[in-house]
Amino acid sequence: MRRTATTAAVALLVLAPACSAIFPPRQKPQRCFVILVIDSLRADHVGTYGYGRDTTPAIDALSRDGVTFTSAWSQAPWTKPSVASLFTSTYPSVHRVLYSKVIVNGEDRSDVLSGKFTTLAEAMKEAGYATAAFGKKIHLRPQYGFSQGFDAYDMNAGDADRINAAVTSWLRSEDPDRFFLYLHYNDVHYPYEPLKEGAVFGGGKPRVEIDGETKRAFRKGELKLTDEDVRQQVNLYDDEILFTDRHVGDLMRSFEERGYSNVLVAVTADHGEEFLDHGDITHGQSLYNELLRVPLVLGGSGVPEAVRGKRVAPAVQLIDLMPTFLDLAGAQRPPLLQGRSIADFLLGREPALPGEPAFSQRRDLHETEFSRCVFDGRWKLIIDASGGRTLLFNESADPGEHTSLTEREPGVVDSLMKMFQPWREANDALHDAIRPEDTTPLDPKTEEQLRSLGYVD
Questions:
Q1: 3 state DSSP class of 298
Q2: pLDDT tens, 395-406?
């Protein structure tokens, strides 16, 4: 049955008093860890990031009592490389999980996350945590290597309500004292579907449904999207966010009801979504902000007291989550991680989070060079390999990235270009040490599913 969301249900989520725990609180509760990825959720459609619509009351409540990173960056503009970076704390040019389909010796194959990496789940499991992952994502199925380290793994669980049910069932059967969960809600991902009941922002079937066929037609110039088409798509997108947010609140209550009183939840996204911001739709095609700037809110009962209610401006990256969670868990960090741990800041051992540059990458199938970008806290430089362009944006004055200042600010361009050199050398050296390129056969059924979504031609 198609999901529903009502204004009344959302109001109850925020206003209802916390229910009494069904299970008694655990003695000496150990901190448990959850990464909740909401696929395709761009930061500027989240209330705590300034969005004008009330799309995320549950996430906003987590933000008020937790810590909100106002400049969080994905390392890639679509799921497969982004989650591979999150799981390994390495950049895409290191792990090389880049494509849905590649041709190897005439055979259709797909990139795989190499077993040569120690994943976040493997490190948490080694430290004694029960590990599980539930979601709905074709790109993250076990044959692509993402199940490494998980005791339970299901990327066919369904919509957010079914994912939550899977979590509850797993907690009931395993009853772990401490756990690491990875959850991947896919409801916000296109095609954006009208809610059967209680649509708040949408209100009907759009003239154009965004899927693989329409995406291909649009990019070939065979389909024009009007302002009204875009408005309809954004309305449906926001309804999907509102539906998903309700289940974020349900999930948090389920932890409380089972007696877990020390749960740290990172709510984030693998990438954003474009609605003609730079002339395109969906994701994967660029390194602009609408695809790379993602929400990152640390919430729940396990948030350290030192940072409750804080909003943090210095840039952080999704690859920072792995070393941070491992440090907070008392787990051993594997070698070769490229992210930085911010655990000392979260625990109040550092008065402020130092600013560091953030990097992201993408590469088209038939290109030898990666497109790349760097953000230094004010300026962002994009090297677009596919378009042969160098773009500079003042993110403080132009967060929508409408006006490139490459010609006007050659000194800034030169300074940011110099940041790439040591970073690229480190990536190349790490990649060469691991040689992680792995692929697996792409079966016809999966290939057709990917084609229906526009991920393969």
A1: strand
A2: 999 999 999 999
